[in-house]
Amino acid sequence: MAEFDLIERIKRETAAARDDVRVGIGDDAAVLAPRAGQELVVATDTLVEGVHFPAATAAYDVGWKSLAVNLSDLAAMGAEPAWATLALTLPHPDEAWVTQFARGFAAIARTHEVALVGGDTTRGPLTLSVTVHGFVPRGDALLRSGARAGDAVFVTGTLGDAAGGLARPDVAALRERLDRPTPRVAAGRLLRGVATAAIDVSDGLLIDLGRLCDASAVGAELDAPPPLSAALRETFGEPEARAHAWAGGDDYELCFTASPAQETVLRAAFGRLALTRIGRIVSSPGVRVVDAEGRDVTPPRRGYEHFR
Amino acid sequence: MAEFDLIERIKRETAAARDDVRVGIGDDAAVLAPRAGQELVVATDTLVEGVHFPAATAAYDVGWKSLAVNLSDLAAMGAEPAWATLALTLPHPDEAWVTQFARGFAAIARTHEVALVGGDTTRGPLTLSVTVHGFVPRGDALLRSGARAGDAVFVTGTLGDAAGGLARPDVAALRERLDRPTPRVAAGRLLRGVATAAIDVSDGLLIDLGRLCDASAVGAELDAPPPLSAALRETFGEPEARAHAWAGGDDYELCFTASPAQETVLRAAFGRLALTRIGRIVSSPGVRVVDAEGRDVTPPRRGYEHFR
Fold first, then answer.
1. CA–CA dist B224, B292 (Å, integer)
2. Are residues B133 and B244 in the same domain?
């Protein structure tokens, strides 16, 4: 299968045609029309087999996840997705694998009206690197750096499910969160002008919130339990479920800060997507978990970091 | 070394600050200001150790080449480079390697005023995937699809040197072309409004010109010898040097079509960069090499293709 065919196949599976794509796949580069008055938001994330997904992961799910984790970065900026490029390194050209991969990639691309505009395929160990492009009105991007003491700390959805799915791949509800995460794109856009800072939870809540706090030169005190799914609680029991929620990676929920007064309005806007206030921003650095009596119960394991 | 540190180190080595970068490395995504009235040109290319560069290649050269091959795609579109993202997969965090890699990447980034705006590092087999962004005035991008019968076929520089350097790594002048290719960015911009079609020579002239011809629904007859460097001719002798020139990959020269009447003007504009007319576009499909007597002497090997 030629390089062109692989990318062409994924393109064919991706229904979303966009009129801001002047030249798509098939030339030396894509030619795109940026949106007047908006800023371009660009994120790149790589998945390596055995590092970011188990070697046994279905091709459909690999395709889905490779775009989902990038859309999650756009969500954390409050951006509206538009275009993606894909660099796919494959050990050998396997037509069935590529077809399923393309279907998974295309399914989430269609959901968010993302056009695949370029890419390349090379021979080598299974690695996927996706770059996504989105738009945000000038000056409206959500940054990590705007949190202030007194802000409330919120998270969307439930935490720890993906880590639970890695530990217990037999539990379908958890494994699905690991394999086909849902980027919170709509929620991110609702946070424009409301959140003071935002980040997506990719490496674990404590570590990602720590990054937000570092960027904002503040700290956080988490005094409320993390949101847990019924499946996670039933599979592991409350204490272990909480440990997964604080430190598990790959959830791709949004963690953000906002005035506590915004909670009611946000809850109504989010509809079925759960919103949980888990703590507050403080002026002293560091992220601490405290119990009902105010005792420090911060777990020793904070998350997953490459190369540490 | 943390992920952030690796990318941060490359960013520090890259002097080019651009005022169209609103938010660079360090948040979930970059925030960039596209240029009013211009189109965005985006290309992605991946290098895998042992496939796109020999395992013994110096880290500096890997850094240089990873950006150079992408800038070559922008050159082939006539675009002015602006921003890049880098996805770097490394088997283990080697500080000396990363520092040298960063210097090579930064050296060519500075030359073309490219800002590194994002990226990620992961653990795995050495793979580099770069996405570059550039600008071209609306409607001015050079495409593969505009060649017409009667156009002349031109190439910049000399061909076959990189393939020669792969075969004879002891010949420094050839090896340098393989390890530190020069993207023809300035030449590409001069071709706006002049070339009818363009492509960069990455997989071999015959195969890349074949792609241009396919996109334009024409063919090409190459009746003039390819431009050869003295080093290539001296190392291999004329017949083998020509074989490298027709089918060798990794030269990153531009191959383009234009009215024969443009040759004098282009030659003057290109200055020291060699320009060679190697043939002409014909209406029948396919790329043929013919000798002075008009006999078909097309070499059987046309270039390098992945996954064929």
1. 8
2. no
